[in-house]
Amino acid sequence: MKIVYVRWRDATTLDDWHEPDVLTGEGMECESVGFLTAEDDDFIALSRDCTPEGPIRATVQIPTSWIIERRALTKEGEKDED
Known about the structure:
By secondary structure, the protein is mainly β. The chain has a domain at 3-11 and 29-73. The protein is 0% helix and 52% strand.
């Protein structure tokens, strides 16, 4: 399974009382690293943990339109497949 780094913009929530002028629509910039466990034209899925038998857990699904940067990573001693 490929390991990837993704820099992406996430949605945010303001739960406390605030003035409307603090709303910018910018969201929060995030960075994630994980096993690339699924992808199509609309999203990618990164999982923190996977087993040799197949089950995965701690998976984040990121819409591709939210991705700012994406890079394949390699384990030490492995060649990049891209």
